[in-house]
Amino acid sequence: MAAERVRALSPFSLLSPRPRILLPQSRPSLSRQCGRRGGFTLIELVVGMVVLGIALVLLATLLFPLAERAGSGVQRAKAAQLGQAVLAELAGRRLDINTPPGGGEIATLTCCSGSASVCAAAAADPVDPSSWLLLDRFDGFSRAANELLPGEDYAGFWLRIGVGCSAPAGWLGAGKLITLEVEAANGESFAFAQLRGNF
Questions:
Q1: What is the DSSP letter of 43?
Q2: Residue 78 belongs to what H/E stretch?
């Protein structure tokens, strides 16, 4: 019977010196079984969020001043445009109370600083600047820009206008100096000047 048992065994079992004992195998861990796919640990996520938060704070501190500077550039451009528009508006007004319609040279210039009654009598409506035909009437003007140039294009801008007699060197006759200060909505002021001759 023992000989029959030996025959029933496989030929390889006879070569091994010890009998083979099978033990129950333990299951491999999940990380070894899956081979660590692309997930993140909780610590890696927290560190990433902290780094992202710091980067966003730095970016915000850099971008907010840039946006403010960009707005300031728009205000400056509008102030320059407004200054030119006001000076063009004033160039269409009569230089002096004695200036004939259509222009022309006069013997002597009359200024508001010398005679306040000239400016008072120069407007059909002392409140409405659009009715002021005489340049001198704008001396001391200090109002919102949309009162002189109607519309909402220059909302928040303020104008200060001065008109005075001037006799600059090199001019054949006297003239009137218009000084204009435009205050933008952000509080920045811009100065303009125009000299009109007596002709």
A1: H
A2: helix 42-91
For residue 23, the Cα-to-chain-centroid distance in whole angstroms is 78
Q: Which pLDDT belongs to residue 158?
A: 93
- The residue behind tokens 């090199």 is 170
Q: pTM for this structure?
A: 0.61
Phi, psi values for residue 147, rounded to 5°: -80, -30
- Running DSSP on this structure, what letter comes out for residue 96? S
Query: Under a CB-based contact definition with an 8 Å cutoff, are residues 149 and 160 in contact?
Result: no
| pLDDT of 87 over the 80 cut | yes
Are 164 and 176 contacting, i.e. CB atoms less than 8 angstroms apart? yes
SS3 101: coil
Strand-pair partners of 62: none
Rounded percentage of the chain residues whose pLDDT exceeds 90: 22
User: For residues 63 and 55, what is the distance between their CA atoms, to the nearest angstrom?
Assistant: 12
Cα–chain center distance at 132: 35
In 10 A of CB 53, how many CB atoms?
10
pLDDT higher than threshold 90 for residue 102? no
State which amino acid sits at residue 19: P
Length of the chain: 199
